[in-house]
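Collaborator request log, item 7. Partner lab (contact: R.S.) asked for a structural prediction of SEC14 homolog 3 to inform their binding assays.
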Amino acid sequence: MKSFFKRRDEDERSVSSSQILQSDSISVSSKTTTASSVSKKSGLIKCHVPFEQPVNPIKRPVVELDKEQQEKYDQLLAHFEKYITKDIPVNDQPNAPTHPILEEELSWLTKECFLRFLRATKWKLDAAIERIEDTMIWRRTFGVVNVPNHTDPNKLLTADLVAVENETGKNLIVGYDFDNRPCLYLRNGYQNTSASLRQVQHLVFMLERVIQYMPPGQDSLALLIDFKAAPAELNLSSKFPSLSISKQCLHILQSHYPERLGRGLFTNIPWIGYTFFKVVGPFIDPYTRLKTIYDQPFENFVPKEQLDKEFNGMLDFEYIHEVYWPKMNEIADKKKEVYMANFRKLESKIGLSEYDLRLEE
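Returned to partner:
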């Protein structure tokens, strides 16, 4: 199941440290430090917060469809132009009340969204329609979308709801890979809670956040999973997720976030890990498995300027929850505001390009 990716020339990906330093100041334990600063002793870049932009240039992608694919896309778009004029259920319960489709939901129905579902269903039109409609209801049911006067505030996916799950920094958005995919790190050794629905909610919340970090021209993420145990003094669990939680997460990823995984990297896998992968393997679709890479150095895929020293990068990253968590959410909220402002400027139509929606002035 291993894959190999040829490294690019160092000259093509080099960038000066001054390009990636961030000037935000933080206050921790009555001490003021710089969010990212170069340590004179080590030459490493001190970092406490996510990066807002990738190292490599942003380019408009070229999407080429053959005649049959274009016809399928046009039919799908025409279907949803009618679909959005009616009210839809507020959740997946029988006889659930209905509510008009919200602006947030319209902005989700992009050209790339339609194409992701078409590719995931092997260009079967009816299957793509069904999956998109099911996903729209699921997003309301799971609390991804807030339907006024219907969504339970206690189930709405917010930073406050899942903050406790990330107090140890077990999930991190830090940096971009060589293809401008935002990197979402899952650090199994930093598990701080027992198996529960909130763990699944936390993962979905972080998925929604990392999608907001995607730059123009990129609609997939890099998932970097590190099984290394946390420092002993933290007294944290490094057990593998329960099978039920793993199956639920895989179902959500494959059903409602198709084509979002651009690359999955696994490192520091203990011997029992390979047994775990054999157990969950049947629940992973074959195309996703092709994107997974085992025990290859992260530096082969992520610029050193945005990679932690633990993986032979240039960052001296330290997770401080009171610093990272609000900043991560602040950056994501700002990017979402840009996305929605562009959506309105472009007449709030469905089928718009995510490249245009993500462009910042």
